[in-house]
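User: Reviewer 2 asked us to show a designed sequence for the structure in our supplementary figure. I'm pasting the structure tokens here. Could you produce the per-position amino acids so we can include them in the response letter?
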């Protein structure tokens, strides 16, 4: 069965790194990807842009294609946007369909700090997207939980709803939202790190200007 992939993020703002790796994951897995902005992201300061502003940027970024789909369910929930709650909800709505939670390599290394992280493997597969930068060492408890789960080929995810782990080798994109926010606050215009449509409406990047 064709999997459904989920790519969550603060998306403060959505950038070409997110879009490029989500698109390539969609091709590698032959799956649509739900692009899911978190309402109140756990374990980090609140986003600079409001939920409405981040959604407005995502809508512009996701125009003209149909494989990456905006999903705003986490914005409708109160409290921290725990991924495990989202995956329980998605699992309930998708029967035995394979679900693949996409995480950048940095996010994957931090998985043991997440709410109910071991349960995620009962609910979905995990696809780890390569990301340039210093490679964080995987904590021992993550290695213990995952060493038997790795598979090499996307086809191996199709016959099971959850429980496997795959490394998705995507084009290295050395772009981060933190750096983009810094550049905009310094009066710069990081054109080729962001979807060009974000520059068409001066209001979209206004939250980051000083
Ligand atoms: N350039 C990239 N390559 C691969 N994965 C990425 C890249 N940028 C972000 N990600 C992944 O996208 C998800 C959402 O990331 P997030 O919205 O926090 O972006 P970010 O650029 O890391 O932002 P910030 O700098 O604000 O932390 C995470 O799983 C993260 O690892
Ligand atoms: O569920 C958790 O405990 C949890 C802890 C940290 C991050 N997440 C999710 O991981 C995704 C990427 O997070 P971030 O902070 O890198 O944007 C986003 O969807 C967050 O909601 C989830």
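Assistant: Here is a per-position design you can include in the supplement:
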């Amino acid at each position: 069965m064709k999997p459904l992939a989920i790519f969550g993020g603060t998306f403060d703002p959505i950038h070409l790194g997110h879009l490029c790796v989500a698109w390539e994951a969609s091709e590698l897995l032959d799956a649509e990807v739900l692009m899911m902005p978190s309402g109140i992201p756990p374990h980090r300061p609140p986003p600079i842009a409001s939920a409405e502003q981040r959604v407005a940027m995502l809508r512009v970024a996701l125009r003209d294609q149909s494989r990456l789909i905006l999903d705003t369910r986490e914005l409708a929930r109160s409290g921290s946007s725990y991924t495990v709650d989202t995956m329980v909800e998605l699992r309930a709505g998708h029967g035995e369909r394979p679900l693949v939670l996409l995480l950048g390599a940095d996010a994957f290394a931090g998985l043991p700090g997440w709410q109910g992280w071991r349960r995620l493997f009962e609910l979905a597969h995990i696809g780890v997207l390569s990301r340039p930068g210093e490679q964080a060492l995987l904590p021992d408890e993550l290695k213990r939980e995952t060493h038997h789960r790795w598979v090499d080929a996307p086809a191996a995810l199709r016959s099971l709803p959850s429980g496997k782990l795959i490394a998705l080798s995507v084009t290295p994109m050395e772009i981060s939202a933190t750096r983009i926010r810094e550049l905009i606050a310094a009066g710069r215009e990081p054109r080729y790190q962001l979807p060009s449509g974000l520059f068409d409406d001066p209001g979209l990047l206004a939250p980051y200007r000083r």
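For the response letter, you might also mention the following. The pocket of adenosine-5'-triphosphate (ligand 1) is lined by residues 9-12, 17-18, 21, 103-104, 106-107, 129, 131, 173, 175-178 (CB under 6 Å). Residues 74 and 139 are 28 Å apart (CA to CA).
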